[in-house]
């Protein structure tokens, strides 16, 4: 699975790290072995852990992940599942860490307790750490994380995530300007973040200034953020703040020792951090040294691979790199990069039948190539400065081992951009006949300047058809120069369709079958044959999106090669001579947009006219088809706010890709339990913030909303100040970037199911062409039970033809997680993935009141006050205030009683009270604030001396003492007489 590397401890398959009781012990053993310099862990490749916990087993022996770590899309996991997981060996990730929609995961403190460095060699959309839509995550908890070498942090849409304002990211990253931390729970009122030591009135964590606020820095209530002295820079420091060696990165076990680093600033070589790899070893991926044999093994791994993305590692300037840089070529014997003499010979292997150049981007794939091992097909339909771009990327090509095809390149006027092409071998031929193939190039006027350019074609013929602006003399000159005149056939060059813009189509083609799927359409038409069937070269099938049924064949075409139609070539069907039913021509359109109208037509390609000059051909009329519907994309911009103690108002926007008629939305809501850990804290202690839960203000703003002027005597209404053009542009840029990031995230993490392979392109002509879509169970659910009685019930409601909904009948001051799914008119297709939003209902005005009066009982030496808890408080009751005073006195006394203390004492105990009459009242404090005071009641504290029980104690004591004295005296007198 991986390779040995210093820095971790290997485990057997029954890893004790899976049992929480062993986590701390295993971490300690890991540290001790690292200090002894004897530990050897594993280098693991990139990991994608999704859907369930099974692949976590692969992490058990990993010390370094050489790549990325993605943990995502776990919807059935619960918090108990993660309490058994811990991977203390993992100290470094070389690329990025991504967490997305993992249910039940509340913190990373136990999962990755020793993760120290994220290098960011390769980033996830410019980010090295991404935490997105983690609905249960309450804290990040990466308390060992000291350095992110490259990239930024994106933490977004985590409804329960706190402890963000207590992390100073400037101590972890070189720059925090590009960090994006938005739409999380983090705020002072709701989170009440408490760093270690806050219970005693002063935090024990280091403090820094962040956003002009000086405060303690911590990851959780138990873990401070480690901040080293400024002199240590990014090298890190030990637990007692001694700086690590200059070659360390992030942390170390002992100061000034390059063998005790947790991670290396430059390279790791045989357990020691070094500035550069020593002679005989080579740097790999910017962090470790390997031998020549190891680099050769990496090279050989891809030597016979057909995957062009598989890196064939070579050695260059002390590094084992994936390919030689520009200006160098590979020495296959030594695997080193050597400078070229003149332009570098670069052989580019075409893995497919032919390399299609249909854009500047695809041309850039061949930049610097001198020999094309394979065939080229140029299909350029438009572009800015296209000739210069093609010359810059294809101008060095000297040889093509296969064929060269120029087809439907409306933007081309000349082929002179192949300025160094001198030989076409023709080892593979188009249609097994042609080494050069030019078809339907509307603006092609010149091939090459034959007075300056020399080209040879070793094998195969030349084909020219439907090039209306290419003169026959230009074609004949090329045939003569390349040496193919003796090989040419009379039908290879059309005399009527080259150099002549006239073209006729006399017959009408009719479509006889159209079957639609959501992204595919099968089209078939009646067969057509000219008098000489050999003259039929094939069909040109045209299609384009057409919102309105008003398109023509020539829409979007101009002299510069622009064409709004997509054109595909269809081979003629096989002719039958044995009486069987002839094959019907047709085409399968793929990768179409769901629920979209398209215009289509087809016409023939015929080689020439007959001896009387008559032209043959056929063309259909333009018809319109529509693809089927499919599952919509996710609803956009969900927004929620509570206006009463029992209602939540929801708003959202339709999906960007409805993929049909969106007829309704499915809204789920589920009560979220309050954090029971809040009851473990004593909020009566100095320095502990009350974890109040305020209802979030509206996140929507309407510039047209008017706010009443509160100045006395003013009846005018004022509007919000208009935004400057710069502010509007900034907001638009941020919104566009956010949508781009989310699209990138969904495109990367959601792996589409592979479509079913078909044996015959047209084998589905008698069936509906549509991928099977599993019906989503959400579409038929009204409420779902929980896996156990502890999980609150999930409710649902269908919302028809609108993007708003009011959820009623909710509990007061309760948090709810809400899911919104878009559904279209076809119920069997199911609904979209969910858009998530959270909201809390308003507090109930009297819910925190203590209904019954306070009762008291004198139990010497204290007064026991008793009252009943509020029946249904706003969230949780966290403390009680007891206010009492002696009648006739001038001073009121206040006592704070935590909920934990109240449950322990079943009320409150007042001690050291002077005798007399007292008044008392109590009020409760919940997450929403204070309730009302109870009705004032009275109690009496008797005189300690005159109290009957006390008098009895005073009398009995001396009597017992006198009795003991008399007994002792009698015993002594008896002894003397004896």
From TrEMBL:
<dbReference type="InterPro" id="IPR036116">
    <property type="entry name" value="FN3_sf"/>
</dbReference>
<feature type="compositionally biased region" description="Polar residues">
    <location>
        <begin position="766"/>
        <end position="785"/>
    </location>
</feature>
<feature type="signal peptide">
    <location>
        <begin position="1"/>
        <end position="41"/>
    </location>
</feature>
<dbReference type="Pfam" id="PF01030">
    <property type="entry name" value="Recep_L_domain"/>
</dbReference>
<dbReference type="InterPro" id="IPR013783">
    <property type="entry name" value="Ig-like_fold"/>
</dbReference>
<dbReference type="InterPro" id="IPR000494">
    <property type="entry name" value="Rcpt_L-dom"/>
</dbReference>
<keyword id="KW-0829">Tyrosine-protein kinase</keyword>
<dbReference type="InterPro" id="IPR009030">
    <property type="entry name" value="Growth_fac_rcpt_cys_sf"/>
</dbReference>
<keyword id="KW-0067">ATP-binding</keyword>
<keyword id="KW-0597">Phosphoprotein</keyword>
<feature type="domain" description="Fibronectin type-III">
    <location>
        <begin position="634"/>
        <end position="736"/>
    </location>
</feature>
<keyword id="KW-0732">Signal</keyword>
<keyword id="KW-0547">Nucleotide-binding</keyword>
<dbReference type="InterPro" id="IPR003961">
    <property type="entry name" value="FN3_dom"/>
</dbReference>
<dbReference type="InterPro" id="IPR006212">
    <property type="entry name" value="Furin_repeat"/>
</dbReference>
<keyword id="KW-0812">Transmembrane</keyword>
<feature type="transmembrane region" description="Helical">
    <location>
        <begin position="951"/>
        <end position="974"/>
    </location>
</feature>
<dbReference type="GO" id="GO:0005524">
    <property type="term" value="F:ATP binding"/>
</dbReference>
<dbReference type="GO" id="GO:0007411">
    <property type="term" value="P:axon guidance"/>
</dbReference>
<dbReference type="GO" id="GO:0005886">
    <property type="term" value="C:plasma membrane"/>
</dbReference>
<keyword id="KW-0808">Transferase</keyword>
<dbReference type="InterPro" id="IPR050449">
    <property type="entry name" value="Ephrin_rcpt_TKs"/>
</dbReference>
<dbReference type="GO" id="GO:0030425">
    <property type="term" value="C:dendrite"/>
</dbReference>
<keyword id="KW-0472">Membrane</keyword>
<dbReference type="GO" id="GO:0005005">
    <property type="term" value="F:transmembrane-ephrin receptor activity"/>
</dbReference>
<protein>
    <recommendedName>
        <fullName>receptor protein-tyrosine kinase</fullName>
        <ecNumber>2.7.10.1</ecNumber>
    </recommendedName>
</protein>
<keyword id="KW-0325">Glycoprotein</keyword>
<feature type="region of interest" description="Disordered">
    <location>
        <begin position="694"/>
        <end position="715"/>
    </location>
</feature>
<keyword id="KW-0418">Kinase</keyword>
<keyword id="KW-1133">Transmembrane helix</keyword>
<feature type="domain" description="Fibronectin type-III">
    <location>
        <begin position="849"/>
        <end position="944"/>
    </location>
</feature>
<dbReference type="Pfam" id="PF00757">
    <property type="entry name" value="Furin-like"/>
</dbReference>
<dbReference type="InterPro" id="IPR036941">
    <property type="entry name" value="Rcpt_L-dom_sf"/>
</dbReference>
<dbReference type="InterPro" id="IPR006211">
    <property type="entry name" value="Furin-like_Cys-rich_dom"/>
</dbReference>
<keyword id="KW-0675">Receptor</keyword>
<feature type="region of interest" description="Disordered">
    <location>
        <begin position="766"/>
        <end position="792"/>
    </location>
</feature>
């Amino acid at each position: 699975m991986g390779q040995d590397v210093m820095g971790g401890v290997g485990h057997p398959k029954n890893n004790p790290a899976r049992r929480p009781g062993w986590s701390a012990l295993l971490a300690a053993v890991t540290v001790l072995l690292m200090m002894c310099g004897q530990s050897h862990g594993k280098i693991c490749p990139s990991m994608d852990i999704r859907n369930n916990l099974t692949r976590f087993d692969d992490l058990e022996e990993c010390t370094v992940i050489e790549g990325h770590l993605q943990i995502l899309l776990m919807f059935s996991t619960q918090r108990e599942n993660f309490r058994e997981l811990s991977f203390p060996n993992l100290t470094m990730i070389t690329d990025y860490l991504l967490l997305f929609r993992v249910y039940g995961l509340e913190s990373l403190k136990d999962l990755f307790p020793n993760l120290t460095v994220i290098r960011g060699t390769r980033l996830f959309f410019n980010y090295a750490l991404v935490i997105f839509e983690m609905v249960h995550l309450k804290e990040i908890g990466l308390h060992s994380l000291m350095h992110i070498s490259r990239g930024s942090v994106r933490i977004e849409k985590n409804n329960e995530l706190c402890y963000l304002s207590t992390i100073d990211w400037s101590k972890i990253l070189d720059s925090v300007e590009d960090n994006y931390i938005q739409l999380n729970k983090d705020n002072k009122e709701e989170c009440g973040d408490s760093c270690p030591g806050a219970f005693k009135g002063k935090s024990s964590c280091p403090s820094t200034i962040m956003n002009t606020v000086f405060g303690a820095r911590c990851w959780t209530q138990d873990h401070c953020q480690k901040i080293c002295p400024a002199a240590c820079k990014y090298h890190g420091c030990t637990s007692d703040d001694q700086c690590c060696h200059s070659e360390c990165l992030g942390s170390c076990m002992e100061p000034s020792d390059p063998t005790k680093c947790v991670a290396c600033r430059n390279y790791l070589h045989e357990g020691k951090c070094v500035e550069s790899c020593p002679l005989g070893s080579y740097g790999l991926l910017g962090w470790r040294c390997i031998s020549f044999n190891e680099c050769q093994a990496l090279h050989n791994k891809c030597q016979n691979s057909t995957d062009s993305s598989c890196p064939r590692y070579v050695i260059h300037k002390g590094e084992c790199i994936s390919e030689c840089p520009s200006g160098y070529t590979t020495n296959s014997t030594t695997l080193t990069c050597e400078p070229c003499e003149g332009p570098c010979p670069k052989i580019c292997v075409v893995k497919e039948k032919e390399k299609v150049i249909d854009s500047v981007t695809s041309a850039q794939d061949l930049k610097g190539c001198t020999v094309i091992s394979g065939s080229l097909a140029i299909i350029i339909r438009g572009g800015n400065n296209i000739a210069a771009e093609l010359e810059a990327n294809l101008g060095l090509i000297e040889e093509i081992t296969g064929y060269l095809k120029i087809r439907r390149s409306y933007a081309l006027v000349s082929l002179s951009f192949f300025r160094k092409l001198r030989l076409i071998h023709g080892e593979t031929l188009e249609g097994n006949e042609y080494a050069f193939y030019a078809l339907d190039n509307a603006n092609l006027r010149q091939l090459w300047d034959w007075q300056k350019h020399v080209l040879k074609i070793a094998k195969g013929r030349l084909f020219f058809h439907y090039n209306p602006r290419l003169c026959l003399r230009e074609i004949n000159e090329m045939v003569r120069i390349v040496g193919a005149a003796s090989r040419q056939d009379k039908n290879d060059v059309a005399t009527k369709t080259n150099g002549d813009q006239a073209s006729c189509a006399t017959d009408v083609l009719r479509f006889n079958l159209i079957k639609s799927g959501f992204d595919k359409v099968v089209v078939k038409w009646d067969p057509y044959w000219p008098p000489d069937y050999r003259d039929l070269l094939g069909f040109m099938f045209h299609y384009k999106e057409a919102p309105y049924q008003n398109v023509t064949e020539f829409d979007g075409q101009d002299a510069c090669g622009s064409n709004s139609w997509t054109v595909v070539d269809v081979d003629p069907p096989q002719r039958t001579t044995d009486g069987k039913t002839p094959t019907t021509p047709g085409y399968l359109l793929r990768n179409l947009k769901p629920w979209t109208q398209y215009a289509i037509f087809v016409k023939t390609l015929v080689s020439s006219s007959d001896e009387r000059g008559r032209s043959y051909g056929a063309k259909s009329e333009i018809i319109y088809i529509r693809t089927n519907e499919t599952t919509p994309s996710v609803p956009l911009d969900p927004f929620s706010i509570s206006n009463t103690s029992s209602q939540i108002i929801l708003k959202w926007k339709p999906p960007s890709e409805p993929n049909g008629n969106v007829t309704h939305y499915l809204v789920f809501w589920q009560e979220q339990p309050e954090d029971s850990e809040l009851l473990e804290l004593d909020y009566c202690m100095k320095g502990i913030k009350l974890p109040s839960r305020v209802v979030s203000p509206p996140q929507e703003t309407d510039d047209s909303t008017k706010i009443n002027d509160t100045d006395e005597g003013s009846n005018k209404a004022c509007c919000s100040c208009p935004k400057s053009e710069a502010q509007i542009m900034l907001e638009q840029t941020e919104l566009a970037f956010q949508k781009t990031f989310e699209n990138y995230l969904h495109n990367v993490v959601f792996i589409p199911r592979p479509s079913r392979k078909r044996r015959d392109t047209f084998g589905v002509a008698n069936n509906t062409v549509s991928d099977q879509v599993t019906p989503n169970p959400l579409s038929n659910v009204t409420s779902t039970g929980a896996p156990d009685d502890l999980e609150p019930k999930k409710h649902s409601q269908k919302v028809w033809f609108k993007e708003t909904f009011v959820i009623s009948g909710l509990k007061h001051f309760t948090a709810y997680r809400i899911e919104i799914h878009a559904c279209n008119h076809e119920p069997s297709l199911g609904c979209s993935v969910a858009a998530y939003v959270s909201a809390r209902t308003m507090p109930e005005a009297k819910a925190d009141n203590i209904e019954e009066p306070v009762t008291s009982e004198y139990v010497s030496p204290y007064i026991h006050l008793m009252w009943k808890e509020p029946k249904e408080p706003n969230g949780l009751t966290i403390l009680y205030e007891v206010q009492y005073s002696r009648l006739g006195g001038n001073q009121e006394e206040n006592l704070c009683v935590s909920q934990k203390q109240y449950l322990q004492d079943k009320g409150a105990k007042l001690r050291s009270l002077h005798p007399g009459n007292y008044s008392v009242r109590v009020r409760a404090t919940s997450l929403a604030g204070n309730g009302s005071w109870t009705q004032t009641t009275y109690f009496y504290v008797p005189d300690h001396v005159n109290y009957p029980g006390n008098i009895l104690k005073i009398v009995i004591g001396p009597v017992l003492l006198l009795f003991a004295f008399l007994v002792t005296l009698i015993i002594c007198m008896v002894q003397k007489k004896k």
